[in-house]
From TrEMBL:
It comes from the Bacteria. Its EC number is 2.5.1.25. Belongs to the TDD superfamily. DTWD2 family. This is tRNA-uridine aminocarboxypropyltransferase. Pfam families: DTW. It is an enzyme of class 2 (transferase). It comes from Pseudomonas bubulae. Residues 2-189 form the DTW domain.
Length: 201
């Protein structure tokens, strides 16, 4: 028999995270394009980001038929948050009243799946890219990162928004994320966690 699930955060009712999810406003609009393989993942941080930001949208798929519309909401200029040779380091979005705020487009999936999203959606791959400064430390603790500075989707969004909008704190978004991690560690048991993850910093 399956456990009752919260329809909002998609967690078991006994581990619902909704009380920890803030409602934060941002000038930047966040568009999350989630690979279908991530939807039912226990650590679905993109969903937490979409729930915690009032100016965010989560779309699931591999090929997005309405991508041109998604990437061109009135009053925004789109940038893809993804590394690349031509990616520009993300900086504070110090803009005048005449300048358009950013639409930050964030592919969500493993690196391989995220690259596949770009391959299958040429409009996405053609967007100007921005990337985060090096040296970020993930709080993930449960997935082996492909390299130093690799962050979960939620952490990457928080860091990007903190840079873009330094007058606002977006760290409350991480409360539900940290509770999610603690719950997963508790579920697997301390011995299993230490055996599989304890030696990693």
């Amino acid at each position: 028999m399956s456990r009752a699930q919260c329809p909002r955060c998609m967690r078991p009712q006994s581990h619902c995270l909704c009380e920890l999810i803030p409602q934060l406003a941002s000038r930047t609009r966040v568009l999350l394009l989630q690979h279908p393989s991530e939807v039912n993942h226990a650590l679905n941080t993109a969903r937490l980001a979409a729930l915690g930001l009032t100016n965010a949208q989560l779309v699931v798929g591999e090929v997005f038929e309405d991508l041109a519309t998604l990437l061109n909401p009135p009053g925004y200029r789109a940038r893809l948050l993804f590394p690349g040779d031509d990616a520009q380091l993300i900086v504070a979005d110090v803009v005048g009243e005449q300048d358009l705020p950013l639409l930050l487009v964030v592919p969500d999936g493993t690196w391989r799946k995220a690259r596949k999203l770009l391959h299958l959606n040429p409009l996405l791959a053609q967007l100007p890219r921005v990337t985060l400064p090096e040296g970020a430390v993930s709080r993930y603790r449960l997935r082996k990162a492909p390299g130093p500075g690799a962050l979960s989707t939620l952490e990457a969004i928080v860091q990007a928004l903190e840079i873009l909008e330094p007058a606002t704190s977006f760290t409350p978004l991480l409360r539900s994320f940290e509770a999610l991690i603690e719950g997963q560690i508790e579920a697997m048991g301390a011995d299993t966690y230490l055996k599989n993850h304890g030696h990693k910093s």
